[in-house]
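Fig. S4 source data, part A: sequence.
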Amino acid sequence: MFDNLSDKLDKALHVLRGHGQITEINVAETTKEIRRALLDADVNFKIAKEFTNKVKDKAIGQNVLTTLQPGQLMVKIVKDELTELMGGDAEGIDLSGNPTVILMSGLQGSGKTTFSGKLANYLKSRKTKNPLLVACDVYRPAAIDQLHVVGDQIGVPVFSDKDNTDPVSLARAGVAHAKANGHNVVIIDTAGRLAVDEQMMTEISNIRDAVQPQEVLFVVDAMTGQDAVNTAKAFNEVLDYDGVVLTKLDGDTRGGAAISIKSVVHKPIKFIGTGEKMDAIDVFHPSRMADRILGMGDVVSLVERAQEQFDEEEARRIQKKIAKNKFGFDDFLSQIQQIKKMGSMKDLVGMIPGAGKALKGMDIDDDAFKHIEAIIHSMTPDERSNPSKLDARRKKRIANGSGTSLQEVNQLLKQFDQMSKMMKMMQGGGGKKMMQMMQNMR
C-alpha cells in the first residue's frame, strides 16, 4: 500500500545527508518534499500542511547528536509525528458486556460481511471467545447466504431468519439467541448504506439503540482514499461510532485514508484488513505502521505472528529429532506449513527492515514454497526420512515427478543439509562453528 509514499519520503529525507546541523533552509526543502509526498498519497491538504509545520518546528535548530546524522534525526521526528497523526497508541476492542455486542456499519461494498467473519475468527482463535454472527442485511441479495458461507469457513455459527425483514427485531433476536446459547460475543452484520440516505441511517441508529452495543465499528474501503475520510466523517455525525476498520490495505491504494482518518474523525483505527483470507486481520498499531511507511519494517508484528503459530509440542518433537540427527523432509515440510499460516509472503517480507525496498518491484507470490513442497511430495516416505539415500537416479525421478529441474532438487538438498547442520550446532552450542559455516555459505 505505502510503496510509493515510502519511496518519496525516503527521497525527501535524503536531502539532509551530509549536513552537520539541521537548518531552516534544508528543513524547508525537506518538509516541502514530505508535504508533496503526503498529498500524492491522497492525504488532505490541511492535514499535510499541519503535519509538515509540526515536523519543521521540531527540527529547526536541533543540533545533531554525536551518534546521529541529520537525516536520521529527521526520520525520527517524522516517525514520531506520523505515529501521532495516526492515533499514537493502539486502541483495543471493548470486550466487556455479557455478551459483548459489536455492531458493524459502513457503505455498500466496503467489506463488512467479510470483515465480520475475520473479526469473529480473530476473537475465537486469538481471544478464546465463543462468537455468534448475526445476519441483519435484509436488502442485499444473498447477503445472508454469504455470511453463512463465511461462518462455515471459520466454524462460527450464524443467526438468521429469512422470514423476518426487520433488521431491528433481527438484531434483538440475535442477542437473545446468543444469551440462550452461551455465546459471549455477538457480531451484527448490517446492510451497506449511504450517509445521505436518511431512512437507512435512521435504521442503523435504531439497531444501535435496541441492542446497546459495546462497540460500533465503521468499516471503510481504504482503496477509496480521501472519499473514505469524508464518508467516515458523515457516518460519525449520525452514529458516533467507537472505531474505524480499514479494509483492502493489501490493494493498490495510496494510503491517505490510513494516515489522515484519525485526525479528521477523532476516532481511532482499531483494525486493518490485509488480504482475502479469514486470518488476514491485524490490530492497528500507529507506531508500527509509521515504521513500515518509513521502510523500517515491523519486526514486532512479525514476531507476534510467529508466536501465534508456534507449537511447543511440535518444537520439542523437532528438537529431539535434531539431537538424534533424524531431522527429515517431513519435519521441514511442517515448518513450511507454520510459516505459511503467518500470512501472505508479501506482507511478511514488508515486516523485515530493508527487505521491502530491496525486493521492490518483485512479485512475491504466496506460492513461494510451491516448488519445494512439490519436490518433497515427490519423494518416498523412506527418502524423506533418510535424505542421504538420494542418489543421482532418485534425484532425477524426483525432478520429473515434481515438474522441477535436477538443479532445483540439488539446490534444495544443499540448503536442507546446511540448515540441518546449523540446527545441530545451535543445539550443541557451537556458535563459533556456525559463524564460520555461515561465512562459507556466502
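Fig. S4 source data, part B ends here. The radius of gyration is 26 Å.
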